[in-house]
Amino acid sequence: MGSLLAPVSSLLGGMAILLLGAGLQGTLIGLRAHLEGFAVEVTGLIMSVYFAGYILGYFIAPSIVRRVGHIRAYAAFTAVASAVVLVYPMFVAPAAWFMLRLISGVCFAGIYMVAESWLNGVTENATRGVILGLYMMVNLTALAAGQLLLTLYDPSGFKLFLIVSVLISLGLVPVALTRNRAPEIVAPSSLPLRALYAVSPLGVVGCFATGLALGAFWGVGPLFAAGLGLAASGVAFFMSLTIVGGMVMQWPIGWASDCFDRRYVIIGATFTVTVISALLAIIRHPPLGLELSLAFLFGGFSFALYSLCVAHANDFIADADKVAASSGLLLVYGVGAAIGPFAASATMRGMGPEGLFVFVAVASLAVGSFAAHRMRIRSPAPVEERGKFVPLPRTSPVVMALHPEGPVADGETGAASGASG
């Protein structure tokens, strides 16, 4: 294991530090907007625009890397992302925060692309699945731990923003000092949406609706918790336990999807999310223990849905097109995530904090119903043609080069060719 981790330890360590700051940042900004009295739909729009910036970065980051190189691009993205955080408490106004969130989304898209291309560059084909699993664990663990940093200081002050900025800056150091050479990043390719939908309608619809639901949760979940009267510590534990649930449940849910028709598992997971969301929306002022337990279960079943939908789509896609298809599905997810926070905030405006999980319940029920409809139309993929479920971070298309079914290595380094898919 030591020899396996040695080439990637600095990269994983740097991303862990950076993601501590990223995990804190999203929750802090949503909660601070609430404390500043921003209208709920304004807060939703501010949180949505991050994902719009992320989609923009998805397209422009490769050209920046090609023009200035990996190390300079990564340093520039990280420096801007770190500086942006310090501007929020200086200009507390919706218009300013709108632009800051957009810039932040572009920067984090670039950060993920460069870091994941480096990770791919030092990974051999035989260990890609293991490294992807480790990266997924680091990703979710750091995001969950970042929520708990919210308890250190009053979110209405400046210190938490300073902590986010410091962590993002420190996350640059191990990656910038690595001696490993990253492979070339090319513009991410994807199957045309029409062709992708023709091959796997459920994959496309499922990824979009999962983006709606999880984008809404990431964007205005802190508003829901704060609206129930939870203090900053309660908001932190609510968000953190949701992520922990997602981390714990991905593998058993994935195992079930490998044993049975994945659509049964998708239906079971979406209907479970619907029931949990309904309980979170209906139960008024539940005991904190019940609230946190439901948050854990919500994360456990909802976080697996994206990977389930990608795995289902890959069951019907030719090997040569799998990385491009997964890149397209990630883009579809991003579009849903860009719409979700604002759409959920509009629901919350009319229904109160509970509107968030009413919105999530509807999105989840729609996916489950569509999956049941598709089962009447299409037979499952033959067992011998189905791949294995692989938990996937929703970060950049570059990470798909680490997928065990991704492109085969080319050259002596063991780096996967076509890193961006």
The count of domains is 2
CATH classification, class level of the largest domain: Mainly Alpha
Oligomeric assembly: single chain
Q: Report the principal-axis shape.
A: globular
* Overall average residue pLDDT: 86
Q: Over the alpha carbons, how many angstroms does the gyration radius reach?
A: 20 Å
Q: pLDDT under 50 segments (min length 5)?
A: 409-421
Helix content: over 70%
Count every helix, treating DSSP H or I runs of 4 or more residues as helices.
Answer: 15
Q: What is the name of the CATH topology of the largest domain?
A: Growth Hormone, Chain: A
Helix-strand string = HHHHHHHHHHHHHHH
CATH superfamily of the largest domain: MFS general substrate transporter like domains
What is the beta-strand fraction? under 5%
The CATH architecture of the largest domain: Up-down Bundle
Q: What characterizes the major β-sheet?
A: none
Structural class: mainly alpha
Number of strands: 0
Distance between the termini: 28 Å
